[in-house]
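Batch 3, record 17
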Amino acid sequence: MQASDRFNINSQLEHLQAKYVGTGHADMNRFEWAVNIQRDSYASYVGHYPILAYFAIAENESIGRERYNFMQKMLLPCGLPPEREDD
Amino acid sequence: MASMDPEIAKTQEERKKLEQQLASLTSVTFDTDLYGGSDKDAYLSSIPANEDEENLDSMDNEVARKLASYTAPKSLLKEMPRGAEDDGDIGFRKPQRIIDREDDYRQRRLNRIISPERHDPFSAGEKTPDPSVRTYADVMREEALKREKEDTLRLIAKKKKEEEEAAKAAPEKGKDSGAAAAPQKRRNRWDQSQEDGGAKKAKTSDWDLPDTTPGRWDATPTPGRVADATPGRRNRWDETPTPGRLADSDATPAGGATPGATPAGMTWDATPKLPGLATPTPKRQRSRWDETPVSMGSATPLPGATPAAAYTPGVTPVGGVELATPTPGAINMRGAITPEQYNLLRWEKDIEERNRPLTDEELDAMFPQEGYKVLEPPASYVPIRTPARKLLATPTPLGTPLYQIPEENRGQQFDVPKEAPGGLPFMKPEDYQYFGALLNEDDEEQLTPEEQKERKIMKLLLKVKNGTPPQRKTALRQLTDKAREFGAGPLFNRILPLLMQPTLEDQERHLLVKVIDRVLYKLDELVRPYVHKILVVIEPLLIDEDYYARVEGREIISNLSKAAGLATMIAAMRPDIDNIDEYVRNTTARAFSVVASALGIPALLPFLKAVCQSKKSWQARHTGIKIVQQIAILIGCAVLPHLRSLVEIIEHGLNDENQKVRTITALSLAALAEAAAPYGIESFDSVLKPLWKGIRQHRGKVLAAFLKAIGFIIPLMEALYASYYTKEVMVVLIREFQSPDEEMKKIVLKVVKQCVSTEGVDAEYIRTDILPEFFKNFWVRRMALDRRNYRQLVDTTVEIANKVGVADIVGRIVEDLKDESEPYRRMVMETIEKVVTNLGASDIDARLEELLIDGILYAFQEQTSDDANVMLNGFGAVVNSLGQRVKPYLPQICGTIKWRLNNKSAKVRQQAADLISRIAVVMKQCQEEQLMGHLGVVLYEYLGEEYPEVLGSILGALKSIVNVIGMTKMTPPIKDLLPRLTPILKNRHEKVQENCIDLVGRIADRGAEFVPAREWMRICFELLEMLKAHKKGIRRATVNTFGYIAKAIGPQDVLATLLNNLKVQERQNRVCTTVAIAIVAETCSPFTVLPALMNEYRVPELNVQNGVLKSLSFLFEYIGEMGKDYIYAVTPLLEDALMDRDLVHRQTAASAVKHMALGVAGLGCEDALVHLLNYVWPNIFETSPHVINAVMEAIEGMRVALGAAIVLNYCLQGLFHPARKVREVYWKIYNSLYIGAQDALVAAYPILEDEQNNVYSRPELMMFV
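Prediction for the assembled complex:
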């Protein structure tokens, strides 16, 4: 980053973005991004009642159970993080 | 109408005559009433015409009166003499020295000394403190000693005086037994308290209300009154030493007298004098006149001094370490000369140079050879060579008349400061005292670690104080980071003396205070021994004039108390609570309130309780109660939980034996009630009785304070009680209506206002019991002369009017609109304006209405002062609230206006024109269209006015007439009016421009058809010039007018003009032109404009092309959805622009794309938008901030128009790109996409392959029913 744009709005933009959970950055790896995607997806399923109802019919579960399952899956959606090979 | 004017003139003439008769009849009684005496010289011979010139401070008034007996050139009395170096940089804002704006009271901060550090019992644990350390007990003992000495000295003085008086009285006894007329006894402030009861007399300026402005903790403390807090205070003029008198008479013991035997008038904390020393010592208490140095000893801590013995806190009159006069031998070289001595020397050198005796040659050259004879000097003549006598003639700060050149030559170079080594910032001469050591090029290696540390701190501080911003920043950071390493002692020993430096500037103080703040945070409990030291330099900030300084001071003290803890704070400040110096007690009380707000009131309550009940001294009780007052002012409604306990702590003060304590108690109650309003009346139950009893017992300032407390408590009460208590207090209030005392008047007015505004007081009671006396005593001319009285009276009267209605109040004062004193008329007018605006005019009956109109006309016509808005507003308010009832008077009003429009004075013409704009709406209501038409014609005739202010007002008046009567009925007809306006558009005066463009715009909007197209074209050309205007309002009006004109005469010609204007150099002009083009396009439909605009893009000129692009951008912004019809037309042009080499092309095109995309979202133009996105996308790697911004916004626009999924697809290619630079950009886009439309992305995320342990797939999305 140049000295000149250290103070301009664009750098602030990145700073602002970084405050939101779920945003990414250049050093993000596949796993981290995937976790975000999974969590966003589950949050979205839970948030849209029609979709939740649709899944419930498809899986023959109650809607409440479906919601509970999705929330549980948000904990570790992709399993444990892989070992870092570089450090 | 014409016949009416002479008639009015006649009646006016008659009225004037009558009034003169009346005035001559009443004048004598009136004046005695007013001035209470027949001394005509004391009368004010003229009334200040300008409000600003009035002395706001009653003290100043008094000064002005006394000033008459002093003869000195005005410039000398007002300005302090300036050193020669001051004239160098005139024209730049000079850095403001704090001391220059401080009054005597605030300068007393320099009398305080930074006390040596104290014992910290917390860190010491059980150990017995080292005898060399000052403990709490030591400090208290010293204080007690000081008090005792004070008492003894006072007793001695008293006894001496009694003896003297007795001696004097004895011989006189024979002839006059009433020898009580002894010279007025000079009262020491300590005598005051005891004799107050008897020797009470109402002196106007002798008010002991240091805080008559509670609730305004943030407000600037009024210097005059704070200073008054010491009774028996010397008049400021006695105090100002003239250059010939070194120290003022009060502070200098009469020649030969030893300090111990000085008369009672001596201030004990003044400069210590050396008995027998002939040279006057420089005074420590500084005034603007003699910038004498502070003595080194007092400003710096005493290193290594054994505290108990050598610690002489500045009051000891015997010589010690801190002699005020530094003898050259006793002090080290560079520290010896204080900055002010430098200044003085420099100045003196200059003066001496000019005033040296003339040589014989010079005299020969001056005088003619003949007719003059050289006389021999008489044999007895000896020129003054004795240093002492010479010194008496011109004060120099040094003990010897001639400046002794120090061994080293460095200090001599006043003008060329030695360059500081090692990249240190510039050092001002006054800094040598503190930073001089840095100039020694000692080898760092040879210094002890301690010295090295000192040096390091000094360097850093110098950088903070004088360095450039980056230097300052790093130095500040280093100081903070290494604070604990440096240690509290070395740090504060360096910082605090700097803050006491007399030549400190605001900025420097701010920086140093910031250092303290940061360091405090780091040092935490290590500061404990230094708490008092820090308080000594920080407390003065609490009473600074500057709001930010006060806030800073509070913040520091708050942090300090959090770092040191309550116990340490109390231990440090307890001795100051009954300090003999009022200044110290005042600042301590304020500091304590800050501590209370930082650590919580409950923690401090037990201590406060003990202090407020102190039996030992009334000063302690006074300070304790004052702390409560300051707490209330500082924390406002947050006192509510503790209200009862706070009131209980101070309530006994109402019956205290000392009147100052009674006063401050009442003031504290007032502050508490004000802070608690509208709750908490139950907490005040216990003080109601003493307060109401008190107002019958007390007189003077105690009474004033009691009344003030009552005034704040009554609004808290329920209606029933409020009514009862108001009636109780009203007797006293009405009695005090007659008080000649200004301060009492203000308080009484305020209390009346507070009482009247409470619910329980009914209108009838006010009408019968209060109004007659109120008007008799307050509605007199003199009240209008003082600004604060004026305000208060108007406010109170308006409040009363809210209760008793318009008719009562206006009826009583309406006659005064014809009073002969203009300020008084203005006060009446302002009151009427406010009352009528609040309550309307429906209560005003026909008779009153007549009087009122008559009065305002008279007042309006007779005004001479510059501040015309009061009359104008008053007139406007009355006419507007009367509405249609004004109709019968309109001819008369218009006659006046016409008459005044023709006046010689520009001001009068302007007021007349302004009045038309105020009353135009009412004239319309009264259906006086003919009259308005007539006025229009008159105004039209005055369009040749040469004063721009007046011309602006005339145009404004025309505009208001056009607005109400419409284009068709306007006289003169629009077709005549507009051509007359065209040349006025050339006028560069802002007011003229604004009013003119408004009027032209109005006509273009509503009545364009009355004017031929050619005229409009001419106006278009003039308008281009107006785009240069500085004022945004003018530019906006101009741009809009382009739109109206284009609508009226078709866009072609206007557009051609505008497009041509794109070629000009000036950016602001081009930008405004592009806006105008866009507006024209919006008003005349884009298709009329776009072809010509796009054609213009072919001009191979950067400015023009960019202008076209910018117009397109604005155009699409304005037309919004309409853009869908034009998007395909402009796409090729945008394609070209987005591929241009020029950055600005791409930037502007991107912003056009953004507006376009946002406009057509959801309207089925996705194909074109995707096409454009393909051109925008390659620009994402731009680094120029404006370009990248525009590109990102365009992509955001695309997200809205195309949906997040499509943009995500563009994004995916780069999120895991091997090049970090690329990834960074793509993630930025991804993030803004994510924040903008996170939910929409869920469906569009790519399918990720599972890895060994990790499941990345999202099977739910595959489900199908």
